[in-house]
Specification:
The chain is built from 4 helices and 8 strands. With 143 residues, the protein is α/β, with parallel strands linked by helices. It has an 8-stranded mixed beta sheet. The structure holds zinc ion (ZN). Zinc ion (ZN) binds next to β4.
Length: 143
């Protein structure tokens, strides 16, 4: 389970709309100590909109130097990286085979579907420990 405030949810949707028709991506910052062992997303850290035009055309992939910058920022605010988010322009908010190949267990993967420029479904996924597939992760919406 991941606790997500309306503000972060809206920011993820807005980022997906801004980067449409490209995929947006970023980090979910917060803690692993939510109620019942869930995660808390306290802040998002957008990555793709800091990229040059050419890089935006490539698929969702966070480069090591981008991840390190995000980790430094998270540490400065006392947060952990609890997951990642990205958008699926004109596709459902369901992980692709590519997403499965590039994921790690233990993190939350939030996907927002952006249909014709408008953010719609937003779902969270977690990889099974055996890495065979994702299962949907419950989102606890808070204000
Ligand atoms: Zn994807």
């Amino acid at each position: 389970m991941i606790q997500l405030a309306a503000r972060q949810r809206n920011e993820i949707g807005a980022h997906g709309e801004r980067d449409y028709p490209y995929e947006c991506c970023g980090l979910l910052l917060g803690s692993f100590s939510g109620n019942g062992g869930g995660k808390v997303c306290s802040e998002i850290y957008p990555i793709s909109n800091a990229r040059e035009e050419e890089a935006k055309r490539s698929r969702f992939l966070i480069r090591p130097e981008e991840l390190m910058r995000g980790e430094k920022y998270a540490a400065s605010k006392g947060f952990d990286i609890v997951g990642f988010y990205h958008s699926h322009p004109d596709h459902p908010a369901v992980p692709s085979a590519y997403d499965l190949d590039h994921a790690w267990p233990g993190y939350s993967y939030i996907i927002v579907a952006v249909k014709v420029g408008r953010a719609e479904d937003l779902l969270s996924w977690e990889m099974q420990p055996d890495r065979s597939r994702f299962k949907e992760d419950e989102i606890l919406n808070v204000s």
